[in-house]
Amino acid sequence: MKKAKGFSLKELDQKNKSFDLDAQAQAGKESRVEDIILDIGASDRIIPAKKPDSEFAKLFKSLKGLYKATAGRTLNIKVSLEEKTFFYELMSTMLTAGISIVQALNISAKQATSKQLRSLIESLAVQVESGQKFSEALETYPKVFARSEIGMLKSGETTGRLADVMGRLSIEIKKGMAVRAKVKSAMIYPIVVIVFVILTVYAMLTFVIPQIKTLFEGMNADLPGLTLFLLDASDFVSQNGLYLFLGLAITSFAILSFYKTARGKLLFHMLFLKTPILKHFVMYLNQASFSRSLGNLLSAGVSIVEALGICAQSTTNLVYANTISLMQKDVKKGIKLEEVLYGSKYFSSLLVNMFAIGEKTAKLDELALQVANYYDQKSEKMADNLAKLIQPLIIGIVGGIVGVVVLAIMLPMTKLLSQVGSF
Predict the structure, then answer these.
(1) Using one digit for the tens of pLDDT, what is the confidence trace for 63-79?
(2) What pTM was estimated for this model as a whole?
(3) At a CB cut-off of 8 Å and minimum separation 6, what does 201 contact?
(4) Which residues, including other chains, have CB under 8 Å from residue 399's CB and lie 6 or more apart?
(5) How far apart are CA 162 and CA 171, in angstroms?
(6) Which residues have CB under 8 Å from 216's CB, separation 6+?
(7) Residue 421: how many other CB atoms lie within 10 Å
(8) What is the DSSP letter of 207?
(9) Using an 8 Å Cβ cutoff, are 2 and 44 in contact?
(10) CA neighbor of 413 nearest in space, from 233, 215, 205
(11) CB count, 10 Å around CB of 284?
(12) Are 85 and 140 in contact, with CB atoms under 8 Å apart?
């Protein structure tokens, strides 16, 4: 019997007991994937013959398989990136060890960390077992598997490198997750402070200023313009707080609804690319995403024309998506990629020059991934810089608001004291 590398083989005993896929993983292993693989056993082990199924059993299995294949689509399955990377990593390891794709899917379903993921993998297994290609089965879940991922896996199936492609996808998704996590963490503090400032101003105008107003009314003195403005603002907010909240909620809902339309997205994406500080940040993120997708697709064996088409479909920024789509049409006509890139204002000279070198040296996939890593670092650094830039700005705004309130309160007090001192 052949022995797959890195496997703990367990042969059937004389009683033909079935192999337990859910047995306890061997101790001392560093990763969960290794533990699972060690418990799977040989992929070519002898399975004892079973009695032929009855017609009723065959019908039941057929209906069960049909349910598994279609249930996920009707339930709108959602799978986290962490779960997806684990799925790719586990599948890559098992396929490398020689396990068939159907068996690997069945094993992955048993090891799924959530019901949603288990339902999805079971559906994939049924579709592949019925004769569909793995990449075709993935296309039934466009909200889970990106177009770029499916394109890479489709090429991996054609070239016999499916295991390698899955391993690469797992690594690249983890890198993307790390970058997004750093960017989000850098932007959380400014957002929290802005919300705190808004709530603080609302609380002062609603609860603090009305009490001071009562004090000033008892003085029967002429109040400075700044104080009168603050008191009027307090009255307006106190009397119309509910309407202000409803207006803010309706406006936010309208903006979000408009953003979800194709026209709204295009308009906002164009505004992002024209806003002075935000412009460079958006360009870094999109250039990194484009370079990574293109590099991964090319390394998987996808043609440049097809790779550009997949990148255009998977890019979330519509300005970049339209630009890449036009690039694909030009490259399809026979124009070199570097010439097409030179005419675009949304790609830096560094990216253009690196791609030109890659095209000439037949190493475009490698250089594209290097460019992606470079712009990932630029994105992280700029997110940190934006957070550092916003912090003193917010502190200044808070200090200004507090200063205005204190000044509005102290001016009448000072005026009153001066009048008392003159008697």
Answers:
(1) 445 444 454 454 468 88
(2) 0.68
(3) 401
(4) none
(5) 14
(6) 223, 227, 231, 412
(7) 7
(8) I
(9) yes
(10) 215
(11) 22
(12) no
Radius of gyration from C-alpha coordinates of the chain = 31
Instruction: Quote the CA–CA distance of 227 and 109 in Å, as a whole number.
Output: 68
For the chain, give the longest Cα–Cα distance: 114
3-state secondary structure (DSSP) of residue 257:
helix
CA angle 348, 349, 354 (to 5 degrees): 105
**223 DSSP 8-state letter:** P
Two tokens, residue 335: 């124009």
Rounded CA gap, 223 and 225, in Å? Answer: 7
Q: What distance in Å separates the CA atoms of residue 365 and residue 358, rounded to the nearest whole number?
A: 7
Where exactly does CATH 1.20.81.30 map onto the chain? 176-423
H/E run at residue 181: helix 162-203
Give the 3-state secondary structure of residue 413. helix
Fold of the 176-423 domain = Receptor-associated Protein (1.20.81)
CB 103 within 8 A of CB 163: no
Residue type, position 189, single letter: Y
Nearest C-alpha neighbor of 285 from the set 297, 272, 276, 296: 272
Q: What is the pLDDT of residues 162-202, one digit of tens each?
A: 999 999 889 888 888 888 887 787 778 778 877 888 888 88
Phi, psi of 114 (to 5 degrees): -150, 160
Residue with tokens 């991996």: 156
Cβ atoms of residues 169 and 90 within 8 Å:
no
